[in-house]
Amino acid sequence: TDQQPLAAQANTHPAATERGTFEEEQRGEKWEREKLVESAMKGNDASHDAAHAFRVRDLAISLAREEGLSTSPDSMLIVELAALLHDIGDYKYMRDPSEGKIVEDFLVKQGVDDDIKTRILNIIKGMGFKEEVGGLKPGTHYPEFGVVQDADRLDAIGAIGIARCFTFGGSRNRVLHDPNIKPRSDLSKENYMNKDEQTTVNHFHEKLLKLKKLMKSKAGQRRAERRHKFMEEFLEEFYEEWDGRA
């Protein structure tokens, strides 16, 4: 009798079938996660949309590998989910208090272990700039926290960060620039969150230009250098054009 080609035999082997089923399950889980993000963030402006969450996830996974976390499947799951879901229920866009429970409910539905779920929620709760604005809190957090926070901050600086900054300012009808309104130097969490009288350009000085020094991972620090330099060059050109010198 004719024998099947080796490749065909391999594909019908129980191990291959099991592997195929596992990969299909992984694809299905990824699709569910991304659909949740797209649905929860569809009303946001482009500075905090699903594309931002996907970029942060990809950056966080890349940073985690550079930091040696890829040897732990649990660590990589924490990094991926925390990065992907970190802006769902963001106070700047929250339309309903129930949105604050979306992530936790989703993790329970996905069958995520309690310890992993707790770590994911703690990362999301603690990673915002407003949590550090009153003073640096040296790294007592686990490594997953550092790479997820760094990934979010990397997406806030450089070319993408500039685009996002002006997109957000425009969505709030914020003044582009006013030389008479100076950046605030002594910020608390409360007055940082109150930006009604601030300009978009001041956001660079109040937050974005500070992020390079706040990176917690070595990989994040390396990547921040280039993005930070790009912002400095952009602002130098911006001020020259504003003053009619260029």
TrEMBL record:
Residues 20-31 have a biased composition (Basic and acidic residues). Residues 1-31 are annotated as: Disordered. Pfam families: HD (PF01966). Residues 49-157 form the HD domain. Residues 1-14 have a biased composition (Polar residues). This is Uncharacterized protein LOC105164046. It comes from Sesamum indicum (Oriental sesame).
